Amino acid sequence: MTSSGLNQLLGADLYFKCEHLQKVGAFKARGAANAVLQLPAGTDLVATHSSGNHGAALAWAAAEQGLRCKVVMPENAPQVKKSAVAAYGAEIVFCEPTLQARESTLEALVQTSGAHVVPPFDDARIIAGQGTVVPEIVAQCRERGFAPDLIVAPVGGGGLLAGVGLAVSALAPDMKVLGAEPAGADDAQRSFRSGVRVTEQVPNTIADGLRTTLGERNFLLIRDHVNDVVTVTEDAIRQALEYLWQRTKQFVEPSAAVGLAAVMAHPARFRNKRVVVVLTGGNMDIGAAAKLVAGSL
Amino acid sequence: MTSSGLNQLLGADLYFKCEHLQKVGAFKARGAANAVLQLPAGTDLVATHSSGNHGAALAWAAAEQGLRCKVVMPENAPQVKKSAVAAYGAEIVFCEPTLQARESTLEALVQTSGAHVVPPFDDARIIAGQGTVVPEIVAQCRERGFAPDLIVAPVGGGGLLAGVGLAVSALAPDMKVLGAEPAGADDAQRSFRSGVRVTEQVPNTIADGLRTTLGERNFLLIRDHVNDVVTVTEDAIRQALEYLWQRTKQFVEPSAAVGLAAVMAHPARFRNKRVVVVLTGGNMDIGAAAKLVAGSL
């Protein structure tokens, strides 16, 4: 999708890759499908932990293959994401909203049920799956007669950004890849710039999909295949979100606005460029959207 | 656009025609463009009255042709619609929020400026222009290997519904056409069923684009070329709007949800049918959306 109004405002040619229109409303369907399609023979139960979209994606991919699925979710996950996991027939196991609680709850679940774990991002199958967005982008742009100058993708755990970086290196090495991250969850930028993966952070951002810490495989791939990681303020995310709702009429979630926020916050890097911005997901509580507008979230 | 979740829920195959992604964010761009492209030679100023989308559409179409444009708008028009008219370079002339005030203000403006009036709906060029959505629908469905059973379009002044009825009669006479209207602005249904155009009503609906009274040309065409007009409650509009936001991720305005509301309110009429639902526009104040969610609008 494109918006001539936004292009005029920002002095760049933006092409939105609409992963919020993907199955389960997020790019996470790609990685989950890729993982489920290559499970060890005989697997009949998969499990994961997720603040939401990966959980729904795994629930969907498992249901498509006739497998059972359990998803460990923090109690404070958005209602719309809990409902989606349940709607695909997976069982939700609630835990405290910390990475440690998620991991220990998942570990206990595996011990008792023998479930095969499909992690949300630090997994080669997931990273490769998320990277499948790149051949689509390249082909869709080629159909329209151009090659993009760069791709901007949000980074949380780093599954998407690592997959995009890897796929771009292989398929379109002239294209630059930029990660975009909330300043309130800037572990990827600090990791990228220091060369050492930052594992301690207390995320503080409305972009609930990006509150996770960068994975290890993800860090190594991002370090080697991504050109830079930039951060954006919460105000910039809010404004980008409003632009996406009002100008493109796409009801995306806050995490999905972080790429456009990066373009708006760093205009000189994008001026007169052909920029693909990945809109990562659209699973948004209406109530939460109203609170965002009122500035109370 | 399609949503397998909505199809499952409603037992019908819905195909959304996304006029909110049209230029100026509404189907009104079609009629305005058609009118402006056939103005009398020498016209350099056009004018209209509009609660919003037609005003923006005429402003856009005029600007595209290098013409000046004045738009009479009620003071209570949504801010986002006022901003759009201004952004396309038209001059806004405010009036009281009644049809009479709009018409007398426009009449006075024509007297002093000599502007050529392009009415919002009761105009052959506008009706024909709005009807251009039909050949697109027919072609897009044919590409996907099917012919729709019916088209559902909201009706306010009746420009879209009359144009759709007329074009369907000419191009796809086997297809049924259904108008959908808020119960709080049901002049089209009363006119259709009684055979006499109802000209008195005090509209009461959140669907601000449908508060206008059915035009005369529009009534005659709808009477002859439309199969039925159904009404929906405000609650149904609200629920359809939430479905559109959450399931299809399309941030449409309340008027655009009236077609889906009709499908939800009258399921037996649509079961197992291939139904094209026209999403008419997406020009929605974020603040108004928040109020809608809170139930205070």
From TrEMBL, chains A, B:
CDD domains: Thr-dehyd
UniProt entry keywords in alphabetical sequence: Magnesium, Pyridoxal phosphate
SUPFAM superfamilies, sorted: Tryptophan synthase beta subunit-like PLP-dependent enzymes
Cofactor requirements of the protein: Mn(2+); pyridoxal 5'-phosphate; Ca(2+); Mg(2+)
Domain of life: Bacteria
Keyword Signal belongs to the record: no
Signal peptide positions on this chain: none
InterPro entries reported for this sequence: Ser/Thr_deHydtase_PyrdxlP-BS, TrpB-like_PALP, TrpB-like_PALP_sf
Regions that span the bilayer: none
Keyword Magnesium assigned: yes
Taxonomic source organism: Microbulbifer hydrolyticus
Every Tryptophan synthase beta chain-like PALP domain range: 3-281
Name this polypeptide is given: Pyridoxal-phosphate dependent enzyme
Pfam families: PALP (PF00291)
